[in-house]
Structure formats: structure tokens, C-alpha cells
């Protein structure tokens, strides 16, 4: 079953998730020779890798997607050295300093990388959480004020009774 850019598979009751590639959109991204600002190319790589980490339920699925990302970038004119540099930057937190290979080697390293990358909220998620917290605080303040008013009214009413 595919939903947006997520593919969910059920094999004998075992669910797995991966990136869903829409045939009409893949493997096209902004070509490296375009006149876009340089940060756009870096962001394309980072976003594709983050999507792969987020949606891949296993290391094997992630590795397949990482290779597909590399091929997509090469197809769109990204230099191999540029791709490798950005892969190293992305995986830098999960690799040892002496590693020359820009990839994760096993399921454990994949899970460590995933746990380090995914708890990070996006700007939009942080803003949404801030708005929710502000709304809750506002509601709690209003509820407290309403209770204080009721207490005051009750106290005044009792004092006025003969």
C-alpha cells in the first residue's frame, strides 16, 4: 500500500516500510548544471537521505534506497565527489572518524543513526508544538481565572446572606 511517499508492505504479517517512488516524478531532481543557488543541491541530497532514514524500516531497505539516491543524483549530473562529500556529512555523526566509506555497515549502526536523526523536530514541528503549548497555557489560565471568579462569587453570595 502506498500513501504519499511512503510504501507499506505486509509479508506474512510482517510490516515493512520504504520510500515510495512515483513513476511520473522519479528519478528527476534539479539538475546539477542548473542556475539554482548552490545550497539547493545540498538540500536535495540531505532531504532524500533523511526521507530514506525516516521511511526505511530495515537496514537492507535503507541500503537499497541509498543506492537509488546515488544513481538518481548521478543521472541528474551531480559529480560523484560532490555526492560522496554530502554522504559523509550526512553520515558523519554515525561513522567513526577513520571511516572512508560513506555508508552505514550494519543494522545496529543504522538504528543508532536513525535514533540520532529522527528525534530532531523540523522548524514547522517546533512551531506547531509551541502553538499547542501556548494554547494549553492560555486555556489553563482561563480555567484558573474562571474558578477564581466562581470562588469569589460564591464567597460574596455567602457573605450577603442574613
Automatic annotation (TrEMBL):
This is Helix-turn-helix domain-containing protein. Residues 29-87 form the Helix-turn-helix domain. It comes from the Eukaryota. Residues 151-162 have a biased composition (Polar residues). Residues 139-162 are annotated as: Disordered. Residues 139-150 have a biased composition (Basic and acidic residues).
Amino acid at each position: 500500500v502506498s500513501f504519499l511517499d511512503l510504501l507499506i508492505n505486509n509479508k506474512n504479517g510482517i510490516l515493512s516500510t520504504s520510500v515510495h517512488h512515483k513513476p511520473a516524478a522519479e528519478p528527476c531532481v534539479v539538475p546539477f548544471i542548473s542556475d539554482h543557488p548552490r545550497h539547493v543541491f545540498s538540500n536535495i541530497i540531505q532531504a532524500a537521505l533523511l526521507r530514506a532514514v525516516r521511511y526505511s524500516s530495515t537496514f537492507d531497505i535503507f541500503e537499497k534506497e541509498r543506492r537509488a539516491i546515488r544513481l538518481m543524483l548521478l543521472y541528474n549530473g551531480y559529480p560523484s565527489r560532490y555526492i560522496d562529500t554530502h554522504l559523509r556529512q550526512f553520515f558523519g555523526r554515525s561513522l567513526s572518524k577513520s571511516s572512508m566509506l560513506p555508508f552505514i555497515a550494519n543494522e545496529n549502526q543504522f538504528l543508532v543513526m536513525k535514533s540520532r536523526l529522527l528525534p530532531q523536530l523540523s522548524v514547522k514541528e517546533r512551531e506547531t508544538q509551541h502553538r499547542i503549548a501556548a494554547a494549553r497555557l492560555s486555556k489553563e489560565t482561563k480555567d484558573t481565572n474562571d474558578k477564581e471568579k466562581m470562588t469569589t462569587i460564591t464567597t460574596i453570595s455567602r457573605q450577603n446572606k442574613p
